Amino acid sequence: MYNQPMLRDDALKEKTIVVTGGGTGLGKAMSTYFLKLGANVVITSRKLDVLQKTAAEMEQETGGKVLAVSCDVRNNDEVENVLKEALKSFGEVHGLLNNAAGNFISPTERLSANAFSTIIDIVLKGTANCTLAFGKHWIKEKQAGTILNIVTTYAFTGSGYVVPSACAKGGVLAMTRSLAAEWGKYQIRTNAIAPGPFPTKGAWDRLLPGEMAKKFDFKNRVPLKRVGEHQELANLAAFMMSDFSSYINGEVITIDGGEWLQGAGQFNGLEAITPDMWDKLEQMIRSTK
Ligand code: HXC
Ligand code: NAP
After folding, report:
1. Residue 202 CB–ligand 2 contact under 6 Å
2. Is 161 an active-site residue?
3. Does residue 45 line the site of ligand 1, with CB under 6 A?
4. Which domains are assigned to the chain?
């Protein structure tokens, strides 16, 4: 049942939600579910052709209204234009899903300064640009708003080989908690989701290229022995965007099948011990007085 939709059909009715990076991968999955729940959705990213194709597909599948606006989240004028276009089409905006990201694996010593900055600019500064534009608008209009940021579990653990992304996502997590406290008084809720592995072309091509996908199979890192289903994330994102979560503010919700704890617990590697070996080990331990 884990790929079933969770909320009732009108859970996002009359809401307009802007999704950065909404044309592909997880952004597309979350946007599609928002539409099924009655929301209008604005999808943005750099590639207008991809957005337009996705928008047409989503409208056909859900019967909802989708506006596609090209926007590089690093460019403030383009971000302001998304807000303008969203208001022009739908009158009001109620939610912002900061989902756009850039990432690739690399030993950190191989990165140029520009490579490092590129990831920080997209993930941390891009999220800040969108958050500022929409937050200021809501504050000026005295209107409530919901900000949902997609981070990762290594936003709190850190991770080698994706260091710019870890720094940027860690910054987004700090922004999430900071603004929850500061902007709560304006009825702006700010939360985050930290997904574990959810296969998408964008992430897998850059994080598990070629043979890596087989050699470093994420399933084996997850206690539940599977990767996430897009609908599982969409269910959580829709709940966090909806009024059903209206008292949740400043939270980061992990949805990773237990992956990061599996990596963290000192003795979790003992999973490799077979029952026969446990018999011998138990004898050895019991004989130690
Ligand atoms: C080292 C690299 C590199 C690589 C790019 N660079 N790829 N350095 N190893 N593999 C360097 C370039 O040489 C350049 O530095 C700088 O980075 C910027 O590269 P550009 O190609 O000019 O940048 P741009 O066109 O802006 O593209 C951004 C991008 C690209 C991040 C590099 O991959 C992209 O567009 N990504 C968007 C989608 C994405 O990344 N999706 C995955 C999200 S997954 P120099 O010095 O040469 O100028 C995710 C999952 C987390 O976040 C957890 C999963 C489990
Ligand atoms: P994806 O399909 O590559 O999504 C990234 C999106 O960001 C793309 O639509 C891309 O579109 C957009 N984007 C990139 N740079 C941009 C920029 N400068 N301005 C505007 N948009 C930009 O990968 P995904 O797996 O769905 O990732 C979605 C989110 O989930 C990301 O925040 C990622 O960090 C997070 N996440 C994913 C996983 C996973 O397992 N998949 C795990 C943890 C967290 P354009 O190229 O058209 O700009």
Report:
1. yes
2. no
3. no
4. 16-287 (3.40.50.720)
